[in-house]
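User: Study the fold:
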Amino acid sequence: MSAKCIELAVAVPQVVAHRVARAALTGPIMSERDRMEFQRMVSEKQAAFSEACWGMALQMWRANQELTLSMSRVFFTPFLLNPRSAASIAAQTQKAAMAVLGKGLAPVHRKAVLNAKRLSKSSPSIGI
């Protein structure tokens, strides 16, 4: 997870710098290449954030199911030989939160890293 955050922290400024430079050099009349790049930028962001929201919602649903099952075991079987400690429940909750965050970060990370690689191959100058 931390490796993805670091990659994202490196890729995003590269992509933003490239696109801002392209926008600054474009001027009032955009070339077809620039128009396609800006349309792609908008559609990619919409798709990535939509996928992130759905992934996080689904993961949150799964985590809630697991936590509910865990809590119901505690309430309905109070005399277990190995009762769960507060620390183990807290660890499960933290693991669930990190899984939700990971599901949200994955599509954004994927698009940003791919864009950084793709845009590093082209110059932001006024294109054809």
The two ends are 39 Å apart (CA to CA). The chain has a mean pLDDT of 86. The CA atoms of residues 70 and 76 lie 10 Å apart.
